[in-house]
Amino acid sequence: MLELAILGLLSESPMHGYELRKRLSATLGSFRAFSYGSLYPTLRKLRDAGWISEDEPELPTDGVSRRAKRVYQLTAEGKEHFGELLADAQPETLDDEGFGTRLAFFAQTSAEVRMRILEGRRRRVEEERHDLHQSQSRSKLDRYTEQLQNHALESRDREVRWLSELIASERADAEAPPKTKSKQAPAT
Amino acid sequence: MLELAILGLLSESPMHGYELRKRLSATLGSFRAFSYGSLYPTLRKLRDAGWISEDEPELPTDGVSRRAKRVYQLTAEGKEHFGELLADAQPETLDDEGFGTRLAFFAQTSAEVRMRILEGRRRRVEEERHDLHQSQSRSKLDRYTEQLQNHALESRDREVRWLSELIASERADAEAPPKTKSKQAPAT
DNA sequence: TTCGTCATGTAATGGGTTACATGATTAC
DNA sequence: GTAATCATGTAACCCATTACATGACGAA
């Protein structure tokens, strides 16, 4: 997921590591921040795979060792790879974590794949809701656990409704093709 | 967290590994299941630490090797340790994961610590909500990211409200001491 | 007799975190 | 000149997962 997120952000514009991390937090929620201990090694990995290139701007050669600000950008292969990643709905796309990340790059995802992801995610959340309901009716919980389960259940319900709205709006867009200036498509 | 959960379940009744896993799923939500690959090594670890004892029931010695069903139970030191864990609100208690686990054993937690945890968690969620709000107003997001952020924001709001209700009900209980047959405490 | 599920375990791996270490740049 | 924050990195660790391997027991 970190990989996808990095490729996605770099596909918008070149950036260095530190900035990447901030944008990552902004996009995925600041409480969901990656540490440098995972960010930099991943950048190294992506570079070794040939998906991003690392150019440190030429240093003013005044003799002293300067710490370079390394700017990363997608290579041609990187763009291709990113495109492939966006082209199918991997299973991890359906869990909480992965879904959020995928959604962040929905604008660059085909309408078809968007729909598969949204419906897949909805199905997943419906299953969770079902399981929750089962375990709730089977065993009598204590007061606190019951509260927690109820809250979890309601959260699932809300997410299902939210996803249904997104799906409906996708379908509407599919019928009334989106103009450059997107307006809410009316039902008729 | 797995440790706390295992100790907690075993404090209710002795159990073997397989059953433990099922009860874990039932309590923490079936979609949040631990694998055997983490469960059994952890049991080993807890046993080595002296917190649980492992007694495999005597086998019918008919010569053939039988696979034993190993039943685990808390030792005296285990009970003590579990009590200590419940006695203070460690930081990991405040994140999503840990909070759910702690709540599962609230019935065995002192009213004081319960309150600290609930208020700590509320504060945490409020911070998340705040951060979300910040990043939302700072940068213009695309349609999908905006949708996601809005949904996340509403979820936080709901959780804060839910926690506030729990807190209020705790306070009510503190004033009107809870009878065996607990009834909802009226505001006056 | 075979299938499902109960039951226990290991090895390799994954995907991150924390703590540490260093140095440059900016604002006061 | 000093504090904050920008900026890059490494090593050790943690907590789990996946895939694999084994075997008992009951029901169809």
Structure, briefly:
Two copies of one chain form a homodimer. In chain A, 63% of the residues lie in helices and 5% in strands.
Which structural class do the helices and strands of chain A define? mainly alpha
What distance separates the N and C termini of chain A? 39 Å
Q: What are the segments of chain A in which pLDDT stays under 50 over at least 5 consecutive residues?
A: 60-65
**Alpha plus pi helix count of chain A:** 7
List the helices and strands of chain A in order: HEHHEEHHHH
Largest sheet of chain A: 3 strands, antiparallel
Helix content of chain A: 55-70%
Largest interface: A-B, 35 and 35 residues
Rg measurement of chain A, Å: 21 Å
Mean pLDDT metric of chain A: 88
| Quaternary structure of the protein | homodimer
Beta-strand residue fraction of chain A: 5-15%
Spatial strand order of the main sheet of chain A: 1-3-2
Using the alpha-carbon principal axes, give the shape of chain A: globular
